[in-house]
Design brief:
By secondary structure, this protein is α+β, with helices and mostly antiparallel strands. Helices cover 45% and strands 21% of the residues. Among the domains are: 17-48; 88-171, 2-Layer Sandwich (Gyrase A, domain 2), CATH 3.30.1360.100. It has helices at residues 17-51, 65-85, 89-99, 129-139, and strands at residues 104-112, 117-124, 143-153, 159-167. The protein is elongated, with a radius of gyration of 43 Å.
């Protein structure tokens, strides 16, 4: 009988052609990836340097104090006009019409949109008509805190009055 030889180490160095091709293909892919990364990195640095320009100069920096105040005043007036444009006119007019009654004639309406308040000017035949009109305004649900600001007797024995009222969320657009 022949002796059994147990050798677990393979001393053959020959690699298969598929393994050599895979190794070569992996090396080429690594070289391409490193080249693409360095190219992208260089492009990124160039773009970052181009984007790092000096901060823009504020065009209003050299503006005089008077001109700045004028510009701020115009901005405030514009905001006020915009607020007045958002007044819920249909709801307010509907509520005023619902409260209209005998003996009271409205002569003016001036909204203060920033405060959600309105001033109502009118004339009444008798002084007692004014509190009745005030109660009707409160009853519409569109107004709260209705106050009589002023009243005056006119030549023709009519009473001119001015009311102030806050419009509520029910009157919001």
């Amino acid at each position: 009988m022949r002796p059994l030889r147990m050798d677990f180490i393979d001393n053959r160095v020959a690699m298969s052609p598929v393994a050599l091709a895979s190794l070569a293909l992996g090396a080429v892919a690594l070289i391409v990836a490193v080249w693409a990364y360095s190219s992208a990195s260089a492009e990124h640095e160039a773009l970052a340097a181009a984007a790092d320009v000096a901060p823009a100069v504020d065009p209003m920096a050299g503006e005089s104090q008077a001109r700045r105040r004028l510009r701020e005043a115009v901005a405030k007036r514009s905001a006020k006009v915009l607020a007045n444009l958002t007044v819920p006119w249909p709801t307010l007019f509907t509520a005023l019409e619902a409260a209209a009654g005998d003996g009271v004639v409205l002569t003016g309406l001036m909204p203060e949109a920033e405060n959600r308040r309105v001033r109502i000017s009118g004339e009444a035949r008798h002084f007692q008509d004014i509190p009745m009109y005030t109660k009707k305004l409160l009853g519409t649900g569109a107004f709260a805190n209705v106050l009589l600001l002023s009243h005056d007797t006119l030549d023709n024995r009519r009473i001119a009055f001015t009311l102030q009222a806050d419009w509520t969320e029910a009157a919001a657009p």
